[in-house]
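Changelog-adjacent note: as of this version, every example in the card shows the full chain rather than a window. The one below runs 106 residues end to end.
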Amino acid sequence: DIAEIEQIADHVAIINQGRTILQGSLDDMREAYQRIDLVFEGDAPDLRFRSPGVVRVERKGRVLSVLANSGSAQIIEEALAQGSISAEVRSVTLKEVFLEIAVRGR
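Full-length structure tokens:
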């Protein structure tokens, strides 16, 4: 159970098909990965971010949800220039990082 690992581990490695795809301090991962929820007046546009650090982008109605591992300020700036009316940055769990990187692919 990933939630239990998150409570007791200091360092983790995510291995997918025999390859280590992510490893390091759990604290560093928590700091590095963030979810940025961007809200638009109408349906969220299909943005192609030029900012570094974008791992995955999902559109759901008016919200564009971006998983990033760096550059959240640049991502928000880019989205605001494209009409985003608000942005919320929140931390993600180890489970979310695992699902995004190992299960859904990078």
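Structural remarks: Strands lie at 11-16, 19-25, 34-39, 54-60, 63-68, 86-91.
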